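Agenda item 2: FE2/S2 (inorganic) cluster complex prediction
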Amino acid sequence: MPSPARRLPLRRMPATTWARQAPTWREATPARIDGALQRALLRPSGNWFVLAAADEIRADRPFGRVVAGVEVVAWRDPDGTPHAAPGACPHLGAPLCRGAVEAGSLICRWHGLALSGAGFPGWQPFPVHDDGVLLWVRLDEAGGEEPLPAPVLPERPQEAGSLAAVATLAGRCEPQDVVANRLDPWHGSWFHPYSFVGLKVVEVSDGKDGGPDRMVVDVAFKVAGRLGVPVRAAFSCPEPRTIVMHIVEGEGTGSVVETHATPLGMDRDGVPRTAVIEAVIATSPRRGFTAARKAAPALRPLMRHAARRLWRDDLAYAERRYFLRTR
Ligand code: FES
Ligand SMILES: [Fe+2]
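Presented output:
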């Protein structure tokens, strides 16, 4: 049996210390980052917001989340059909996420009103979209844009050969701060030396003249010590609250990391809160990856953990950006 080091295209990265790597601040100009952000913010979302991971919405209990200031409750019929609706009971306002789901109906805990996806006077369900990994809800009043029949989804690997994991965190900032953090790939090996080695931005395109609007980086995902898995990754924003990283060359080509920023509401101090809902959809033609897929239930928490560690730091970046631009 070959060692994992021979099966994976591990590369020994040049010896360097954190302080001696090449500074990236000259390339990471505020104008470049802000230009990419402004173009993303102008794209239509059709008022679709990522509510949660698809598997968080279940047929045996309701799920509740405030999205863009709107209290939302979501559940599924026994056949898996998802529903989302206002989170307050139309009778006296009980929080429906504290109720129960019985044969596709949401039962209010206060007086037993049963509500189905068909709606009730004064209680109209919202359009939902289950993309297989994430559940989206369309909030037209909160979104204020021209509604679209479905969310703008990034290109993804075929579900059959892929492994998906979703991690959710929340921070005190707005969605644009989360997207701006990712539109600064230059911070990669400086700010996340535990994950990335030798990150280099090799292309910054602004989408003019019909070309792509993306940033392409060469980077190694750190495995242990100086060993890394080198990949080329492209970052783009299909809609204003999503930034996607596609692995375009190297191990896991075709894999996607989708970062979705969902506005929640204001906290007690009047500071906006934003959820970062990140879906890692990994694929690889390698034999080892088939084995990895079989181990999926065990791997998922690990994938979530890796994303969490990065996101603790990235949220600090996003919160700092929000603080500086609003104080
Ligand atoms: S508040 Fe829900 S049934 Fe009365
Ligand atoms: Fe980061």
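Discussion summary: Residues 89, 91-92, 94, 108, 110-113 surround FE2/S2 (inorganic) cluster (ligand 1) (CB under 6 Å).
Owner for follow-up: CH.
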